[in-house]
Amino acid sequence: MADSNIPFDQRDGFIWIDGETVEWKDAKIHVLSHGLHYGSGVFEGERMYNGKIFKCREHSERLHNSAKIMDMEIPLSIEDLDKIKHEVCEKNGLKEAYVRPIAWRGGEQMGVSAQSTKTHLAIAAWDWGTYFDAGKRDKGISLKTSKWRRPPAECAPIKSKSTGLYVIATLSKHSVEREGYDDALFLDHRGYVSEATGANLFAIKDGTLITPTPDNFLNGITRQTVIKLAEEHDIPVEVRHIMPEELGSFEEIFVTGTAAEVTAVGKIDEHSYTVGPITRKLREAYETLVRN
Prior knowledge:
The structure is a single chain. By secondary structure, this protein is of the alpha+beta class. It folds into 2 domains: 119 residues, 2-Layer Sandwich (D-amino Acid Aminotransferase, Chain A, domain 1); 157 residues, Alpha-Beta Barrel (D-amino Acid Aminotransferase, Chain A, domain 2). 24% of the residues lie in helices and 28% in strands. The strands form 2 sheets. Strands 8, 9, 10, 11, 12, 13, 14, 15 and 16 form a 9-stranded mixed beta sheet that branches. Helix 2 packs across helix 3. The longest helix has 14 residues. The chain starts with 13 loop residues before the first strand and ends with a helix. The model has no long low-confidence stretch (mean pLDDT 96).
C-alpha cells in the first residue's frame, strides 16, 4: 500500500502518458498548457476490484462523451482505453486500485481559443482505500450546506466530467472541513438539493429511496448502479426535486460515487440520521456486485 503521506507527484510507479509508459516522477506537462490555464480538461475516476475495473467500458464511454461536450477528442478508441487502463494497473502491480484517466488541451496555443491545441491523455492508477474515514462506516459522515450552488445546464457543461466544474467543490469542501464536517452539500441554482462535492445523494423515507433529478449535475455511474440495485431488491425509487426543508424528514441518507462507493451520512447541518437497514442493504449489495 502506498504511503498516503508521500505527495502524489513524488511517488514510485508508472504512468501512461501520450502513448508511452514512463516512470511516475517523469509524467510531466508544460506550465503553458491550455488545460492548466483555462480548465480545459476531462477525467474519470474508476476502481479496480480483484483485478477488474468496475464498469470499465461505461467510464471510457463517458470520458469520450465528456471530451466531445468540451469540443475535444480523446486520442484513443474506447477499446484501447480499456486495454491500457488494465495494463497500467498490471505494470504497477495493482489488483485493487483507483484509476484516473485524464485528457487536457496542451500548450500548442495559449489564449481562450484552443483551435490549434492537441488533446493529451494520461492514465494513472494507485492504491486507494476508502474515500471518507473508514471509522465512520457505522456512524455516517457529516455534511454542511455550501454557500456555492450548482449552475444551470445552460451556464456550464454539466454533463461533462470537466476539471473546471470542480473549482467550487474544492472551495466548498475546504470551507466545511474547517468547521469539522466531512463534506459539503450543494443546492442548485433554484434552491433544490443537488449533490455532495464528488458524490450523488440518496435519501430514504417510509421505505422509498429518493434521489434528486440529475438535471444540473452528472448522473453518476455509481448512482445508476445503486438505482438498479434498489429496483432488484424491490425498494421503490423516486427521482424528483428535493427541497432543503425536506432534509429533516428523512430517516436515512447516503452518498454514492466511484471513490465514495456507498457511504452513509449521519448528519447534514442540524439534522441527524441513522445508518439504517436500506443503506446497509444497498451498501452490501454494491460491495458484492463490484467484486463479482
